[in-house]
Structures are given as C-alpha cells and as structure tokens.
Amino acid sequence: MKYLRYDELDIVIFVHPKVYSPSEDTFLILERLLDEMKDRHIERALEIGCGTGILSIVLAKFSKEVVAVDKDPYAVRCTMLNAYLNGVRTKMRIMLGDLFEPLDPEEEFDVIVFNAPYLPPSPPSSDVSVEGGLGVIGEFLKGARNHLGDDGEILMTCSSETPMSEVVRILKGEGYHYLVLKSVKVFMEEIFLVKAMWRK
User: Fold this and answer.
1) How many folded domains does the chain comprise?
2) Which CATH number do you get for residue 71?
3) How far apart are CA 62 and CA 197, in angstroms?
4) Cys bridge to 89: 45, 74, 83, 140, which one at CB 3.0-4.6 A?
5) How far out from the chain centre does Cα 74 lie?
6) Are 25 and 55 in contact (CB under 8 A)?
7) Which uninterrupted H or E stretch holds 6?
8) Is the pLDDT of residue 193 over 90?
9) For the segment 103-141, what is each residue's pLDDT rounded down to a tens digit?
10) pLDDT tens digits for range 26-56
11) CA distances from 78 to 1, 60, 87, 175 (A)
12) Which phi and psi angles does 195 have, rounded to 5°?
C-alpha cells in the first residue's frame, strides 16, 4: 500500500496494491482536463473505470457532481477513501458495476472519462485494470453515446498495442466525430488521447 502526493493538484492518493496506479495514460487525460476546466464549467462528469479515483477527484474540484464507476470492488473502495481524503466525497457518487450498467438510462453528462483497459487480453487475463482491448472499448463507445449531454464529450486513452486503426474503425462505425489530441511513447508502446463527440 502507498500514498502519492501531488502538490501541484493539492491532492493525496492512496493506492491499493490491487488497483491500477496513476501512470502516463492517466496524466494524459488529467492534463487535458485541467486545460479545459480553465475555460469551461462542467456541471456533471462521469468516469468509467475510476481505479484510484484521481481523475474523478480532480473533476469534483471543478464540477457540481461526479459519478465514478468501476467493476472492481477494490477500486471502488479506493476511490471512496480518496474522495474522503481530498474533501470531495459529498460531490461524488461512487458505484460498483460494469461500464454503464449501474447508471440510470436517462443520466447525461458533460464529460465522460475512460482510461480504457486497452491492452488486448492475454488468456487467462491476469489484470482486468489494464487488459480488455477492442471488446471493452467497443462496448464503452456504444453505451457512452446514450449518456452524453448536448455538446458532451468523451476523453479516452488508446494504445498502439490495440491498435489505433481498429479504435478509429469503431469510432466511425458508432457515428462519433473524433480527434486524436496527443500521444506519448512509453517504452515500445504509444498511448493516444482521443476526444470523441456524438450528435443526437
């Protein structure tokens, strides 16, 4: 077990050994969120696959309500503890469930964040926090459009291991407009930050 302090964000994050620790992909999304929140008011935000909850906690500092969902009970408990530690628990609804399953079908959000478990699964899958691949990304994108508010957007990560061309195929097939905002190379892998929008 460990605690991570991010002085520039004024937050402290507890990381359970069974929960994915904030990494390069996390900070790709975080950097974009911080840039956007300077000029935009976010009323309601949703994070799918919240892990430690670091992205949800930062969102909660700048928005009215944040919903954080994860299918891993350790991640849900970790996010809950971190919400208390950082004084934003009353602004967050933290739920156990797979993708959008625990949400009300009518709920809509200004921003949906998904640090996708983008690596292709290796049987038997050893780590659900990082493995999922195109199947999980496809399910996410199909469900996300039902929960995007007017002018809502998705921020999600993808990897060259997935590969990105297949993610683009899914985005187009589901009717999204999208932009690849940034990428970062980590060892032999390239991680992409994608912004996606869907018009009703």
Assistant:
1) 1
2) 3.40.50.150
3) 21
4) 83
5) 16
6) no
7) strand 2-6
8) yes
9) 999 999 999 999 988 665 555 444 444 445 788 999 999
10) 999 999 998 887 777 789 999 999 999 999 9
11) 11, 16, 14, 35
12) -105, 130
